[in-house]
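Contributing new records

If you add data, match the layout below exactly. Sequence lines come first and carry their own label; structure lines follow with theirs. Keep one chain per record. Anything else will be rejected by the validation script.
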Amino acid sequence: MSKLQTFNSRYIIGISFISALGGYLFGFDFAVISGALPFLRTQFVLTPLWEGFLTGSLALGCIVGCLMAGNIADKYGRKPGLMIAALIFAISSIGIAFSESFTYFIALRFAAGIGVGMASMLCPMYIAEVSPAEVRGRNVAINQLTVVIGILVTNLVNYFLADHGVDAWRWMFGLGAVPSAIFLIGVTWLPESPRWLMKSGQTEKAKVILNKIGSPYFAEATFKAVEKSLVGSTKQSYGMVFEKAVRPAVVVGITLAVFQQFCGINVVFNYTSTIFESVGANLNRQLFETVAIGIVNLVFTLLAMWQVDKLGRRPLMLYGSLGLSILYIVLAVALQNHFPAGLVSIFVLLAISTYAISLAPVTWVLISEIFPNKIRGVASSVAIVSLWGAYFILVFTFPILAKILGAYGPFYLYAVICFCGFLFVKAKVKETKGQTLEELEDNLIRH
């Protein structure tokens, strides 16, 4: 980095953390279902089919949220989209807490998914657009950090609420209104993305924000690079995502998004109780395991933030996919042979740590940076819609597969998928660390 090209690190990290509070909402809704499921099975008399649908209904809302976010982000800006996401989530969290019927619960969890889906797309994209290339990977990984903090805090709250009677699940969900309100207030302080401002013709505002982010030299160089990348750009449409020039990036983005879910780790997050119940663990032990998972997830996400701009994206993805493939086989054998819960816990936590340092943050980093400026909104939307579609399929099918094959059976399948993912990353994913978004776009066009 040139001495002339210095950055206002405190400002950049500050706005990245505020934006990444949307990730906390993602983590909250991701984790709350794990603690609530033992109560919801009784409350709504769930069969494996309906348990899978209840868990996956969030993902269906996320798909709608992503589609909405792509259009809102490109038409009105990244900031309004983040505010809408926070508002939807706050209202739906309170509504879920007062649910009296299964239908009402599903409808409101679907609505919560709309907020989560919007945040899951807009937060990494916003952070990528305000971050200098040298620290972009770390900053986008802040979003994953807030996701895992959301998971850990929610698991802890679930653990302590579990002894508060049959309606404990209502408090578990209702408390989601608190981080939503904090996020909504925080977003009001965010500047708009300078890249979006330039795309919408508000160049003077963009210059002001770029000068807050870095030195005059950095601001001028970034302004010229973005200006060049936007030459000839037109109104975004989903048809542009499949044009020949950008198709390689879109294929990689969609495949990585789907792989991050089909790798199977979210079964561990969402069905911790089912997995440990299969080896004889009681409810207290099941909820304790969710807390242990949250702690390990947080520690290794911090490690990922430290390494993603040093080791790079590709090596971490290769390590994660191959490592999970091996660990799943070991975990499946342990579950199949009813190893003690403590031993099963070790293998589960090893899988969580492998995922947390690799596929979890790095997939979001890559999705936020591999698409050209002129289609980043809609292309990110397509990739993340694919991610949430894959998540729905994963969590919907697990209870059914577990009933047919046993809790261990699906992990053999996930091991094969992870090995296929390893081969795909090795063949198709190129390193992106240290390059500006515009340099990555130039490389895409040249190839």
